[in-house]
Design a protein that fits this description.
Length: about 325
Amino acid sequence: GITELQINRLFHGAWKGGLLCFDEGPLARFKEVIDAAVEPAINDGEISIVFPHNPVFYLDEDRASFALDNVTLAMEGEVNGNNTELVQLEADLLLGAELRVDHEISSFVFTLTHVNLSVLDFQANALLKNSESVAQSLIQLLEGWAVDTLVKRIDDVPIYGNLFHVADIFMRVTDVEIQDGMIIVMGSLYNSDDPDVDNEAPDTSATIESATNAFIDVSWDAEDDNNGPIAYSWRLNKGEWSAWTSASSGQVPTPNTGLHEIQVRSRDDWLNVDESPYTLEFEVSPDPTDDKKGCQCASGGNAVSPLWWTILLALVGTRRRQE
């Protein structure tokens, strides 16, 4: 079943990818059109999604699809002091997906291969000027550009490790295939005392290489007793950890003025995670040529200027271990 937690993660992922941010994300080019179409100011908006039917799954050659019929999305908000239903949308949704094992990060990765959205009903009279014509334009936007953008954004997203441990047995999934209406899962089994089983976590190190007003470039590495692949993850100011990546470096969105820290951790192919991440402490000084930052989206900023033009980032120190 689809849970509320999974839906919340979906919306958070959309925000993190910049989909919901007007200043930076792909919706920016529609800002003027939407501003002109929306009638009132909205306070305390709430969105609910209802799935009245169980998903129906289809297994075709090399691809899985699932249909969600009569999905209902409703938005309520306070307009002129009154709680008002602003939007109600009912749609049929057909999603095509691919699940494979990425051995570089020892995880299952999820790719959205196609989305077909058929809007059955759309009501937004309390929200939109010239509601009938604007609603039709929004339906075309949702059925066309929006779903295409969604497919482009959800590509090789890590969702879960491919190693499972049950009753002193390890099972590593090595491949997933769809054949003749069946999902075939292949893997290897190990006893817990097998000499190939690794229980020691890698040791992480990291360095800030450079910075701009938009991003901080961080490189990382790890030492491990196993020659298998290593995956990395980072977080800013003890926020949410990033997805695992096999890349040896990454870009962290530059935070506001003040003292901050970036933590980097590593994970080996037996899913042993370094529980004492490498910590980089640094200070961001204000940019004298710009007295405010733009949209605080996870997708980052606009133009990338050299460090000495836009921001002073002083490395205060590093702590090898976080107590």
